[in-house]
């Protein structure tokens, strides 16, 4: 048998980097808000909430009533790109139906 080189063992005082566990950071979250106005029908607001935020009729009605009584309500909290997409969907749909419903996004 040929002489095989012995593998070198690191000395105890050797400074080796320990592998770190890298945890991916969650993206920043944003609230999608509906704003009250005096012209958009309540039923249309409920339809928007059901359609774009996947809420039940009961949940959508509760959110709509909060918009109506408090002037603003959160429809959902999402990463920025999803929040902006949902806001644009609501605004486009309201515009198509000729309603002045306003939707906004803000950091959560």
SS element count, helices: 3
Outline, from the CA principal axes?
A: rod-shaped
Mean pLDDT: 90
Determine the N-to-C terminus distance. 69 Å
Q: What oligomeric state best describes the polypeptide chains here?
A: single chain
Helix fraction, binned, reads 25-40%
What is the percentage of strand-forming residues? 15-25%
Main sheet specs: 3 strands, antiparallel
Q: Secondary-structure element sequence? A: EHHEHE
Radius of gyration: 27 Å
Flag low-confidence runs: none
- By helix and strand content, what is the structural category? alpha+beta
Read across the widest sheet, the strand sequence of neighbours is 2-1-3
Which structural traits does this protein have?
alpha+beta, single chain, rod-shaped, 108 residues, 3-stranded antiparallel beta sheet
Structure commentary:
- The protein is of the alpha+beta class and 108 residues long.
- The chain has helices spanning 42-53, 57-70, 80-96, and strands at 29-35, 72-79, 102-107.
- The chain is rod-shaped, with a radius of gyration of 27 Å.
- It starts with 28 loop residues before the first strand and ends with a strand.
- The relative contact order is 0.24.
- The mean pLDDT is 90.
Summarize the structure.
With 108 residues, this protein is an alpha+beta fold. The chain is built from 3 helices and 3 strands.
């Amino acid at each position: 048998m040929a002489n095989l080189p012995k593998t070198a063992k690191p000395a105890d005082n050797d400074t080796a980097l320990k592998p770190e566990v890298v945890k991916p950071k969650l993206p920043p979250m944003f609230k999608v808000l509906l704003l009250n106005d005096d012209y958009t029908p309540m039923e249309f607001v409920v339809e928007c909430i059901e359609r774009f935020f996947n809420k039940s009729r009961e949940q959508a009605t509760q959110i709509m009533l909060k918009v109506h009584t408090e002037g603003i309500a959160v429809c959902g909290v999402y990463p920025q790109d999803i929040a902006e997409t949902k806001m644009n969907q609501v605004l486009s749909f309201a515009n198509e139906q000729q309603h002045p419903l306003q939707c906004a996004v803000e950091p959560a």
